[in-house]
Structures are given as C-alpha cells and as structure tokens.
TrEMBL record:
Any single Pfam family the record assigns to this protein: GFO_IDH_MocA
Biological role stated in the UniProt entry: Involved in the oxidation of myo-inositol (MI) to 2-keto-myo-inositol (2KMI or 2-inosose).
Recorded coiled-coil stretches: none
Gene3D superfamilies: Dihydrodipicolinate Reductase, domain 2, NAD(P)-binding Rossmann-like Domain
Subunit structure: Homotetramer.
Name of the protein described by the UniProt record: Inositol 2-dehydrogenase
Family named by the database record: Belongs to the Gfo/Idh/MocA family.
GFO/IDH/MocA-like oxidoreductase domain segment(s): 151-266
Keywords from the UniProt entry: NAD, Oxidoreductase
EC annotation from Swiss-Prot or TrEMBL: 1.1.1.18
Occurrences of domain Gfo/Idh/MocA-like oxidoreductase N-terminal (ranges): 4-142
Length: 354
C-alpha cells in the first residue's frame, strides 16, 4: 500500500515535532505539506525536511528523509482541501481548531487534532455532531498520555481488577515555565485537560463535578495569574481525582500519578531512569519539557493513528473524548472564577451518538 500523505497545520513546537517524527520515525506515511501563518517558519521546516532543496515560495524540492518534497501552503484551509493531502495533523493553537476541524470533515479527511479539541463545550459538541452525521470516525484527539507505556500499563493493571475497584487518583503536572501571556484559564484548558482525559480514561467514567482551587500564586508569574492550581474531580462512578497543575515550576517537566484501589495502589512517572553518582551527588535527570517526557508516547500515538487511518478507523481518543474534556474544563474555569464546585454539563452520549 502506498504511503499516507500527511499535511501539518501549525508548525510551532508540537507541529515541528510531529513533522520530524513523520519524516524520521513513522512508517507508512510521508509529509507532503505544511501550513503556518509564520511562513518563514514553515519554509524553513519544509526545506529542512525536504532535504534542503529551495523552498521557492511554495514547494521545497529535493528528496530528503521524507522521500519527497514538502509543499508550503499559505492558507491552512487550502492545505486541508489539497488533493495531495490524505490526512491532516492539526497542531495550530486551540482557538483555530474548530474551523480547521470542520474543514477536515467537509473534505472527508482523517485528522489527528492536538488538544484541546476546541475552546469550549458548545463548539466541541458541534464537531462531534458533524462527525457523527458523516457516519464514520475521522477525528482523533492528541491525548498522548494514553499511549505512554507507563500510563498504558497502569490502565491495564486497573482494568485487570487485581487491585480491586479504583477509588482515588492523585496527579502531579508541572512544567518548567510558560511564556508571557499565559492566563489562569489556560492552565485548565491547555494543561489540566490532560488529567481530565486521564481520569475519565483510567477510571472509565465521566467527571460529573469539578472544583478548582488556587493557592497564593508563585512569585514567578505576573499579577493576576493563578499558578499553581489544585483541582478535585468527582466522577460519576463515585471515584475522585485530584491534580496539582503548576506550569511555572522552574525546575523542569514532571508528570506522575498514583491510583489507589481497594487492595493496593500503583504509581507511575517517578522518572527513575538512569541514576548517576558523581562528585558528591547522586540523581537522575529532570526532563526539560513534554517533548522529552512523552517522546515515545507521541511516536506510538502517531504510528497507531497512521495505521488506523489506513484501515479507515481511528485508534485513540475520539471527538467525544475531546468534547467531554472540553465540558469538564469549561466547568473548571467557572469553578476557578467562582471558587465553588461546578457541575459538568455534559450532553447525553446516547442521544448525541445514537
Ligand atoms: N499533546 C501535547 O502534549 C501537546 C504539547 C504541546 C502543545 N500541544 C498542543 O499543540 C497545539 C500547538 O501548540 P504548540 O505548543 O506547538 O504552540 P506553538 O505556539 O509553539 O505553535 C503554534 C503554531 O501555530 C501557528 N498558528 C497560529 N495561528 C494559526 C492558525 N490559525 N492556523 C495554523 N497555524 C497557526 C503559529 O504561527 C505557530 O507556529 C496546541 O493545540 C497545543 O495545546 C499539545
Ligand atoms: O500544551 C502543553 C502540553 O499539553 C503539555 O503536555 C502540558 O504539560 C503543558 O502544560 C501544556 O501547556
């Protein structure tokens, strides 16, 4: 079977990372087009991944590791509709996802959409409904932790029933730093959204209520930004989860969680890789960011998505998962603003999906 031809929309940190992985590590796919309003960035990437041929304003000629040229297409919607693009990766900022997702659905193109699905529950639900009308799943959401071997092992352990019924999930999610312009609600929508998905997935239940607390902020953020945040999720099956999200921790990237069940607990993300002893000190390395910690998870996520698209399927978090997470985050932002627990307003799945 011929390679799936991939177009990437948005080639900042995540889009460029996915581009590299398609070209260098993923089989059965080939990068054919990129689009970014920062055209210089798109041109540089296209030239680099096409093997250094001239960009010429539209196409980087010359065969490289990708085995072909990568075309720069100015308008993201034109990339989605381009005949040479079989499937799309959306790595644009969240505010651009809704319009670009609708374009993918209109053109019948499978799409791996980075989280968040969209910026709010209403538009996410519209996406779910539009996909459902087509009668085939085209959207997979980039909740990559589901593909991380440690998270996957934890899921398998909990599902095996060996530890009994899961009761609690404790999560820690720390980033080294976030750029200026990072606002309090983005900590919920862009960062905590991962724990929202993890809790729903690991415990197999929707989240029905969320409370987001904010202690006195770190001195590392501008006035008015609430960082860190501490949230409690109440799940429909009676379990609970808590999460600390701290996106200006200064030290490095740290993601871990402990599940507590009736007959035992299990912890992942301790980062106990290589431990060194040198010059009066011992220890390991703290990853700089998500691209280091979840490198393998992204590889597995994208490879499985490519393989599934070849079969006309998706193999990972669905548009519904993206919508459910958006609904929880919307309630979380309301809770952050009010200081009160907020019930999650989630449409009935059977009514929406039949
Ligand atoms: N799964 C993860 O762990 C993970 C990690 C990082 C980012 N993300 C997600 O990936 C997406 C991109 O994040 P990032 O960190 O790469 O951001 P970034 O700011 O580094 O890159 C975003 C890129 O999109 C471009 N862009 C801006 N508006 C656009 C538009 N309308 N259409 C197309 N491109 C546009 C920008 O010029 C920039 O190059 C976001 O949805 C983010 O939440 C996911
Ligand atoms: O967009 C990023 C990404 O989703 C990372 O996985 C998360 O750790 C960051 O907090 C977030 O800003």
């Amino acid at each position: 079977m011929s390679d799936l031809r991939i177009g990437i929309v948005g080639v900042g940190a995540m889009g460029a990372d996915h581009a590299e992985r398609i070209v260098r590590r993923i089989s059965g796919a080939r990068l054919v087009a990129v689009s970014d309003p920062d055209t210089a960035r798109a041109e540089e990437l296209a030239v680099r991944l096409s093997g250094g041929g001239p960009a010429g304003g539209s196409a980087a000629a010359g065969a490289g590791a990708a085995g072909g040229a990568v075309r720069v297409i100015g308008d993201p919607l034109e990339l989605v509709g381009a005949r040479e693009v079989d499937a799309v990766i959306l790595a644009s900022p969240g505010f651009a996802h809704a319009e670009q997702l609708f374009a993918c659905l209109e053109h019948g193109k499978p799409v791996l959409c980075e989280k968040p699905l969209t910026m709010d529950a209403a538009s996410s639900l519209q996406v779910v409904e539009a996909e459902h009308k087509l009668g085939k799943p085209l959207i997979q959401v980039g909740f990559m932790r589901r593909f991380d071997p440690e998270y996957a092992a934890l899921k398998q352990l909990l599902d095996s029933g060996e530890l009994g019924r899961p009761l609690l999930l404790h999560n820690v999610h720390r980033n080294k730093a976030n750029g200026p312009g990072f606002r309090s609600e983005m900590i919920v929508r862009d960062s905590m959204v991962h724990e929202v998905d993890v809790a729903r997935w690991l415990f197999g239940s929707e989240i029905s209520r969320i409370t987001v607390h904010a202690p006195k902020p770190t001195g590392a953020v501008p006035d008015g930004v609430l960082d860190p945040q501490f949230a409690v999720f109440e799940l429909a099956n009676g379990a609970m989860a808590d999460v600390e999200v701290f996106v200006n921790f200064q030290v490095g990237y740290e993601v871990r969680c402990e599940a507590v069940a009736e007959r035992g607990s299990a912890t992942i993300g301790l980062g106990s890789g290589v431990v060194t002893r040198a010059a009066g000190h011992w220890g390991g390395a703290v990853p700089e960011d998500f691209r280091v910690r979840f490198d393998l998870a992204y590889d597995i996520e994208v490879q499985r998505w490519i393989d599934a698209v070849g079969r006309g399927e998706i193999d990972g978090p669905s548009a519904w998962d993206g919508y459910a997470a958006a609904a929880v985050c919307e309630a979380g932002i309301a809770s952050l603003n009010s200081g009160q627990p907020v019930a999650v307003d989630l449409a009935d799945r059977r009514t929406v999906l039949g």
